[in-house]
């Protein structure tokens, strides 16, 4: 089977399967209702070739056509998938165009870890094909036409202690049950040296069984391999390793090349996650099926650091009330667009970039993106824009830790996380429910903070989770609600502005550590009684804004000339990032030595390649000379086809021209 395209999300594959089937079946009303509940988006799969290639069914479809030369076309991909799976267990239904049942191939000798469905189990009839346990995962290789060899990183459960009748599944709690749920495998989530009772509060979510899975294997069945659990909330699935760290202490290591799973020693304490869905379709869609092996889902291991997070400190109702008012103002809570985590772009060349799902939290995403670029910067090579998965994780950890460490006023930084069982199901909680589960975790050193953030990455990176909100709350509490208000010119304002946008104060809190309201250097006294607070120190990361082009504000040298050639850009009510394309350009742009190249990245723009901008001297003086320098002159630019980003660049390097190198200028 061919590998899936790197950018394909399993959820998009499932939705495309349903849509195509409903179209081929003529279920117009059902399709209409489905599209209402699951609207198409920019990454939805609309081409059958992409869908079949994503599932590795391009060859299977060709095989079907070869076996049925008189059939009109090829059936829906879902039909092809079913026929393909049935063929793998040597049973075919006798529906239209089906072949006569072929004799089952004799499985290769050797132990198998899928419980009652061992080599001696009877083969199902052709009318009802036997369903492979976990789609044939973690099984021994078989003869041609049998079940496929095991996939790395997955396992089926070893039978519980105690005998059970032949062919009768055994539930983790010891009860015998013939229901489909009882026959399903249980996924194990474990960490070295982690007792069940202690780890349950931090890792157990809905559907988590109470059994420890410590029973010895039944005779003739090999122990189930040790398993690492895939956290599928992000485009880059996060694997929390159940084995010892293979990289340096406190570091992160990739799982490539994959290793064969080691046998799990009996008697170990493990959490058992049982799939409790009763319906066949739900189990296939959400289980460890073929979509889990899609090439677009890079496997990450988070190793090092403490194996178990200590319980946090409850947040008092009064502090929570003040925090909500500071962050969200009269709304009292973030809009739905803020419910997302920090996950990376999967397009080649954009692996450094975070992805924003909807408008609103762009200031938060851009600020974190700038810190990530800072973590990916090397004085000798410049910015690494194609980080591998362990480098992505390391950069994100460093970025979040840097934000919280810079924001602290006292000796401690704070990371806010849901406590207990809510941690495993935070993405399913509403905002008010989330707040009732939150506790604060303090760190008095950078090293302790990095360990704390690293352990919380699966929660912070969950695509549909609360990572963005948790970071903002953590930054505000690290600095202190009263101190954040003291940073602002208008202490009664909130950090989220109109329409769910980020304020300048919030962006400054995340890139500078203080929620100052202005971008100029130092403070300015207006009338002896009112002081406007600006930037008081050299900045590691910079900022440029279109408002300066229109002469509404003046950005000081601290933000225009940061330590690193990275700038958060504010343009047209949207925050993005601009950074030097390479080491030489970084040095030249900081010295104002033309020409040089800049890279532009927009987390919300669904970019498939980086935009490289070549900046050089314009003999005619650029837009600065063409439009004039007064506030009235600059106001005339509105409504003209002038790329705002070029105007932003000229606030830092006046009189230049910008070559978009084949990209369409953003107007």
From TrEMBL:
GO terms for biological process: protein K48-linked deubiquitination; proteolysis. Residues 324-662 form the Deubiquitinating enzyme MINDY-3/4 conserved domain. One of its GO terms (molecular function) is cysteine-type deubiquitinase activity. It is an enzyme of class 3 (hydrolase). Residues 93-231, 245-267 are annotated as: Disordered. It catalyses: Thiol-dependent hydrolysis of ester, thioester, amide, peptide and isopeptide bonds formed by the C-terminal Gly of ubiquitin (a 76-residue protein attached to proteins as an intracellular targeting signal). Its EC number is 3.4.19.12. It comes from the Eukaryota. Residues 94-111, 134-145, 157-205, 215-225 have a biased composition (Low complexity). Keywords: Hydrolase, Protease, Thiol protease, Ubl conjugation pathway. It holds the Pfam family MINDY-3_4_CD. InterPro entries: MINDY-3/4_CD, MINDY4_N, MINY3/4. Probable hydrolase that can remove 'Lys-48'-linked conjugated ubiquitin from proteins. PANTHER family: UBIQUITIN CARBOXYL-TERMINAL HYDROLASE MINDY-4-RELATED. Belongs to the MINDY deubiquitinase family. FAM188 subfamily. This is Probable ubiquitin carboxyl-terminal hydrolase MINDY-4. The lineage of its organism: Eukaryota, Viridiplantae, Chlorophyta, core chlorophytes, Chlorophyceae.
């Amino acid at each position: 089977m061919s590998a899936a395209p790197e950018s394909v999300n399993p959820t998009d594959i499932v939705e495309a399967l349903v849509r195509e089937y409903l179209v081929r079946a003529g279920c117009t009303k059902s399709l209409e209702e489905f599209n209402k509940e699951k609207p198409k988006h920019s990454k939805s799969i609309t081409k059958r070739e992409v869908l079949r290639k994503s599932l590795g069914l391009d060859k299977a479809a060709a095989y079907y056509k070869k076996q049925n030369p008189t059939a009109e076309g090829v059936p829906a991909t879902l039909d092809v998938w079913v026929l393909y799976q049935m063929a793998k267990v040597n049973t075919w239904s006798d529906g239209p165009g089906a072949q006569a049942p072929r004799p089952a191939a004799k499985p290769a000798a050797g132990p198998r870890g899928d419980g009652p469905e061992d080599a001696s189990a009877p083969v199902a009839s052709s009318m009802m094909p036997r369903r492979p346990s976990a789609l044939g995962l973690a099984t021994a290789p078989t003869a041609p036409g049998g079940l496929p060899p095991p996939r790395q990183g997955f396992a089926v459960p070893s039978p519980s202690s105690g005998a059970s009748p032949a062919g009768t599944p055994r539930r983790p709690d010891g009860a015998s049950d013939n229901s489909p749920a009882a026959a399903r495998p249980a996924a194990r989530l474990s960490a070295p040296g982690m007792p069940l009772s202690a780890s349950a509060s931090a890792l157990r979510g809905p559907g988590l069984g109470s059994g420890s899975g410590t029973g010895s294997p039944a005779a003739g069945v090999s122990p189930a391999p040790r398993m690492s659990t895939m956290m599928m909330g992000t485009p880059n699935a996060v694997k929390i390793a159940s084995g010892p760290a293979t990289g340096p202490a406190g570091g992160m290591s990739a799982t490539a090349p994959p290793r064969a799973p080691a046998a799990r020693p009996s008697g170990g304490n493990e959490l058992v996650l049982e799939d409790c869905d009763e319906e066949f379709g739900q189990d296939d869609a959400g289980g460890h099926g073929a979509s889990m092996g899609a090439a677009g889902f890079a496997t990450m291991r988070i190793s090092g650091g403490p194996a178990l997070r200590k319980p946090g400190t409850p947040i008092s109702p009064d502090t929570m009330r003040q925090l909500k008012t500071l962050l969200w103002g009269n709304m009292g809570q973030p809009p739905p667009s803020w419910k997302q985590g920090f996950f990376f772009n999967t397009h080649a060349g954009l692996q450094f970039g975070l992805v924003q799902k909807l408008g609103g939290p762009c200031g938060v995403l851009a600020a974190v993106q700038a810190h990530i670029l800072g973590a990916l910067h090397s004085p000798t090579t410049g910015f690494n824009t194609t980080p591998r998965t362990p480098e992505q994780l390391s950069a994100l950890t460093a970025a979040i830790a840097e934000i919280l460490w810079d924001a602290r006023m006292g000796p401690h930084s704070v990371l806010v996380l849901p406590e207990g069982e809510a941690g495993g199901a935070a993405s399913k909680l509403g905002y008010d429910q989330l707040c009732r589960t939150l506790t604060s975790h303090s760190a008095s050193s950078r090293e302790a903070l990095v360990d704390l953030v690293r352990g919380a990455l699966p929660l912070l990176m969950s695509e549909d989770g609360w990572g963005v909100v948790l970071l903002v709350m953590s930054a505000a509490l690290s600095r202190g609600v009263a101190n954040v208000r003291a940073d602002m010119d208008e202490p009664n304002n909130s950090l989220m502005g109109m329409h769910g946008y980020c304020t300048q104060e919030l962006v400054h809190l995340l890139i500078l550590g203080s929620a100052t309201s202005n971008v100029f250097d130092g403070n300015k006294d207006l009338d002896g009684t009112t002081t406007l607070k600006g930037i008081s120190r050299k900045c590691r990361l910079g900022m440029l804004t279109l408002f300066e082009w229109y002469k509404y504000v003046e950005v000081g040298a601290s933000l225009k000339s940061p330590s690193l050639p990275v700038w958060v850009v504010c343009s047209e009510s949207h925050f993005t990032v601009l950074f030097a394309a390479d080491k030489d350009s970084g040095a030249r742009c900081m010295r104002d030595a033309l020409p040089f190249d800049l890279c532009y990245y927009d987390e919300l723009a669904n970019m498939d390649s980086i935009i490289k901008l070549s900046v050089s001297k314009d003999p005619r003086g650029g837009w600065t000379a063409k439009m004039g320098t007064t506030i009235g002159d600059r106001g005339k630019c509105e409504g003209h086809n002038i790329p705002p980003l070029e105007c932003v660049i000229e606030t830092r390097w006046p009189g230049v021209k910008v070559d978009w190198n084949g990209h369409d200028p953003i107007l």
